[in-house]
Amino acid sequence: MNRRRLLKSLGPSIGAAVISTEALAKLGENKYSYSIPPNPEHKPLNKAVTAITIGAGSRGTVYGNYAAKFPEQLDIIGVAEPNQFRNDKYAKQHNIKDENRFNTWEDVFKRPKFADAVIISTPDNLHYAPCMKALAMGYDILLEKPIAPTEKECRDILKLAKKNNRIVAVCHVLRYAPYFVKMRELIQQGAIGDIVSVQHFEPIEHLHMAHSYVRGNWHNSKETTPIILAKSCHDLDIMRWVVGKPSLKVAAMGDLKWFRKENAPAGSTARCTDGCKVERECPYSAIKHYYEDRRRLAVLDLPADKTKHPEVIMEKLKTTNYGRCVYRMENDQPDHYVASIQFAESVTASFSMEAFTSYHGRRTRIMGTMGDMVGDMTELVVTDFRTRKELKLVPKAEDVDGYKNSGHGGGDWLLVRDFVQAVGQQNPKLLTSTIDESIEAHLMGFMAEESRKKGKIMDINMSV
Fold it and tell me: Distance between CA atoms of 392 and 253, rounded to whole angstroms?
């Protein structure tokens, strides 16, 4: 196989040529970059898909940004958001008419159906009710993960989606990232023989943990969802997708070890802004993170030119959870979590979610009978056992039409692109993360949490 033919087969595409371990062995130690080619099943649309965004926070903005770049494909014509700053900002970006701006999701559905689809990017505990109402009214749905906070609610959504023949795309965006697309494709093509086991690691990064799961919106599992779903249902899903076999059992352990009141240093105060004596040496200082380093400021709803408003940032730290001491929050999410999963045909997987890292980005090791894979989302190394030769694959950091990485390795916008095509063509097969495909990861998560709390191995029951 010459280099040109091999590179063509390396492209993740429908019906790609099989890449055997023999073909990989002939390459020697070579390194190739690749990107996702156009899907031949995508078609020009007669008109843009129209959508209403319910929840104009971070995730709603990410998906809305696709519409701003590609208005001929996706047109956001309505928004529901109780935060006036976010509502105004979102409406301005998408030129939304006043009559299509709403404070609550309930207000949207008081009107007859007036768009093709609904984007649900509300807090976790507000996914179920608007999703069920949207399905009842005939909308297709782009649903931010997790699907819903309970197993029953997830199953209810699946049942109603099937009954009303509607498209529900779950935002398991890693399925669309070129890195994981290539990983799965190679496994399916037998590049490392039969898959035997998987080790998957999600380093949250210590400041991300403090921001989102100690101070932030997901700090209390009772008010949102357990961290295994809020953060890691992506990872459970990608393991299931890559393995390609049903999950059977799970055993999990984990706890909240560090971000507790008893670990608060002497001299610390309720807020970092209250004259805390150890603030300068604390790695979780809100003053350092938000005020000095200007990181993760979107949650503070600042004016557009945020760098010129330091006094506004400081005021937010004095009045919101983002300025509170990480040891004195009402948080209960585990800061470390491990799960062992049994899949069909004797395939095993181990998953580890860790708060205390200086880095982020998933790490994965996949062991097969004829080779293995090791990757960190920036590079995937495939090794052939018989020759001990390596192939290094580097996904390009662009996702849609040359626009640089929208997030999750390019998966965010690639998901939206496929959703637009699925709705426009009324063909859910253009998506890999429909609710039918995505619900299993949630059941894995619910059972992992049961296992963690009860200390038992839990069966994963996919029957509806």
Answer: 34
* Residue pair 404/396 in contact by the 8 Å Cβ criterion: no
pLDDT (tens digit per residue) in 23-42 = 555 555 467 777 777 889 99
What is the domain extent for residue 284? Answer: 261-323
Tokens describing residue 326: 């990480």
* Tokens linked to 203: 């380093």
Q: What angle do CA 209, 215, 217 make, to 5 degrees?
A: 90
How many domains is the chain built from? 1
pLDDT tens-digit map of 207-263: 999 999 999 999 999 999 999 999 999 999 999 999 999 999 999 999 999 999 999
Domain presence at residue 136: no
Contacts of 292 (CB under 8 A, 6+ apart): none
- Whether residue 137 is contained in a domain is answered as no
In a domain, 279, yes or no: yes
Does residue 280 lie within any of the structural domains?
yes
* Secondary structure class of 410 (helix, strand, coil): coil
Q: What angle do CA 300, 333, 317 make, to 5 degrees?
A: 25
CA angle 330, 331, 332 (to 5 degrees): 125
* C-alpha dist (Å) from residue 214 to 132, 173, 183: 30, 24, 33
Give CA separation, 453 vs 103, 167, 316, 457, in Å.
38, 34, 36, 11
Query: Which tokens hold the place of 149?
Result: 């906070």
Q: Residue 112: is the preceding peptide bond cis (ω within 30°)?
A: no
Whether pTM exceeds 0.70: yes
